[in-house]
């Protein structure tokens, strides 16, 4: 049912880049435009509100819910997060209740110091928990990851001490980019004006 593009290179951009919204929404539109009309966009935002660094997913999910759009489904919010303990249950629910889902997995990750604040969109699933050495079910036909802090040492503590401002800015940018890309594609036309998303909306 889903028809994926033969190849789309990953897109990586800093949340402070003035063109970040254009790049992210444009990349997402490249995937979405190739999907069968019966495919349902399903956004799964991973993480927990109990850790600043790991709250990127739930913050993004809550921001997406505020758009009240019927063009996609959202799983994982601050109120009802999708995390290690309920991940498999959530994925089973999607398989049973969403017809032909195209899943966009969204999660925080750790990386190099120079990459903090960068957001990447790439083909294939995201592997939640890998930054803290957990093996959890992979999520997504494509994924969006945000580098929230530095990897390599005391990962749990690093996530707890991540700056909330950076995570919230990244979550807002991801949510607005997903919304604009999906709704513009649903109308059957994508213009630069549709894809431009600024911090102020």
From TrEMBL:
Organism lineage: Bacteria, Bacillati, Bacillota, Bacilli, Bacillales
Gene: yyaC
Coiled coil: none
Gene Ontology molecular functions: peptidase activity
Pfam families listed in its UniProt record: DUF1256 (PF06866)
Name assigned to this protein: Spore protease YyaC
SUPFAM superfamilies hit by this protein: HybD-like
GO biological-process terms attached to the record: proteolysis
Keyword Protease carried by entry: yes
Keywords of the record: Hydrolase, Protease
InterPro entries: Pept_HybD-like_dom_sf, YyaC
Record organism: Cohnella pontilimi
């Amino acid at each position: 049912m889903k028809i994926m593009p033969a190849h789309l290179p990953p897109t990586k951009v800093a949340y402070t880049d003035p063109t970040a919204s254009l790049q992210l929404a444009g990349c997402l539109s490249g995937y979405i435009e190739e999907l069968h009309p019966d495919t349902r966009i399903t956004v799964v935002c991973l993480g927990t509100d109990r850790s600043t660094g790991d709250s990127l997913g739930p913050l993004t999910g809550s921001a997406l819910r505020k758009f009240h759009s019927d063009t996609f489904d959202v799983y994982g919010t601050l109120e009802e997060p999708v995390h290690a303990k309920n991940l498999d249950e959530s994925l089973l629910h999607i398989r049973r209740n969403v017809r032909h889902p195209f899943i966009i997995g969204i999660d925080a990750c750790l990386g190099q110091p120079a990459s903090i604040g960068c957001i990447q969109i790439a083909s294939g699933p995201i592997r939640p928990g890998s930054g803290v050495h957990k093996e959890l079910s992979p999520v997504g036909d494509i994924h969006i990851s945000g580098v929230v802090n530095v990897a390599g040492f005391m990962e749990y503590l690093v996530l707890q001490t991540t700056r909330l401002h950076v995570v919230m800015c990244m979550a807002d940018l991801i949510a607005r980019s997903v919304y604009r890309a999906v709704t513009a594609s649903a109308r059957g036309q994508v213009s630069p004006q549709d894809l431009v998303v600024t911090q102020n909306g």
